[in-house]
């Protein structure tokens, strides 16, 4: 796969940066994990707030994002590693650590990933249909659509995209596959969705297109499965008493899970009883922030 040069200027703007920095309650000497470090937008501002005595561990499944992060987040107290936040215990064990003071997860897709012409994340691009965060593991979206049954495709779109026309879209995708025109690139998937839903030709931002792309990305990266396992089985073991976790979500499927996990845990107390949202001025400057929600919880002292 062709890779974009990581030296290219990042276009991503970190979401709710001011709120994240305030809610993490940062100070000198803390050990902070940015579990979805991306291009380093949040971590770049976290680093000076924890000082030379602090430690910043940035992890991401996407190698290209880590290369970008390395350009703005560096120093003797910084570790950047390609991994999922689900593997946090293993990442910490390599450094002789068992727990940390702060954890940040930004579950949104980076603007750099969306703009990449050869990753397939953005419906405004026209490249191959991959959508994997780690291109060396798992199945690409084009491979999924080439092998999954009509029912399986419909279930993915319904469960992860919550689109009412999931059955029609799946039927169209499989029909094209049977006629010798499998879905292999972004344009073909957009056209198939529009054909199945009666959308206008070229309407790449129709609600169904947005939902299908979300569903396919979630499916191939097992995003909700990883989030569930992290909240249930990893978080209780890696956050120190008095430590804080902040999670930014971008759709109801994620936010519902975070909300329930924070409220039901006997080890956490809510710092934000209701989620924080971006200010109107931030949304004007960065429209992709409009659906963001920030929830924060603190580990009870025990």
From TrEMBL:
UniProt xrefs under Gene3D superfamilies: Putative methyltransferase TM0872, insert domain, Vaccinia Virus protein VP39
EC number: 2.1.1.199
Pfam families per record: Methyltransf_5
Alphabetized InterPro entries for the sequence: RsmH, SAM-dep_MeTrfase_MraW_recog, SAM-dependent_MTases_sf
Enzyme class: transferase
A Gene Ontology BP annotation from the UniProt entry: rRNA base methylation
Domain of life the protein comes from: Bacteria
GO molecular function: rRNA (cytosine-N4-)-methyltransferase activity
One GO term describing the cellular component: cytoplasm
Main localization (coarse): cytoplasm
Role summary: Specifically methylates the N4 position of cytidine in position 1402 (C1402) of 16S rRNA.
HAMAP family reported in the protein's UniProt record: 16SrRNA_methyltr_H (MF_01007)
Family: Belongs to the methyltransferase superfamily. RsmH family.
Name of the protein: Ribosomal RNA small subunit methyltransferase H
UniProt source species: Thalassoglobus neptunius
Gene this protein is translated from: rsmH
């Amino acid at each position: 796969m062709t890779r974009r040069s990581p030296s290219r200027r990042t276009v991503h703007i970190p979401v709710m940066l001011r709120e994240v920095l305030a809610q993490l309650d940062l100070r000198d000497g803390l050990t902070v994990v940015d579990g979805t470090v991306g291009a380093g937008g949040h971590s770049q501002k976290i680093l000076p707030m924890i000082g030379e005595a602090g430690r910043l561990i940035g992890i991401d499944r996407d190698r290209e994002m880590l290369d970008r992060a390395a350009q703005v987040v560096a120093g003797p107290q910084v570790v950047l590693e390609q991994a999922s936040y689900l593997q946090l215990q293993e990442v910490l064990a390599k450094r002789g650590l068992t727990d940390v003071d702060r954890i940040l997860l930004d579950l949104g897709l980076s603007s750099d990933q969306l703009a990449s012409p050869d990753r397939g994340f953005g419906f405004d691009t026209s490249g191959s249909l991959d959508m994997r965060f780690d291109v060396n593991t798992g199945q690409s979206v084009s491979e999924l659509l080439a092998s999954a049954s009509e029912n399986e495709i419909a279930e993915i779109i319904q469960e992860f995209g919550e689109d009412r026309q999931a059955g029609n879209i799946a039927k169209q995708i499989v029909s094209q596959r049977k006629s010798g025109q499998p879905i292999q690139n972004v344009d073909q998937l957009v056209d198939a969705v529009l054909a199945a839903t009666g959308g206008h030709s070229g309407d790449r931002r129709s609600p169904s297109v947005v939902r299908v792309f979300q569903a396919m990305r979630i499916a191939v990266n097992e995003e909700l499965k990883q989030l569930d396992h992290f909240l249930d089985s990893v978080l209780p073991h890696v956050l120190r008493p008095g430590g804080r976790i902040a999670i930014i979500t971008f759709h109801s499927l994620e936010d519902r899970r975070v909300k329930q996990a924070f409220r039901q845990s006997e080890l956490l107390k809510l710092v934000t009883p209701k989620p924080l949202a971006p200010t109107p001025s931030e949304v004007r400057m960065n429209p992709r922030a409009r659906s963001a929600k920030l929830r924060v919880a603190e580990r009870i002292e025990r």
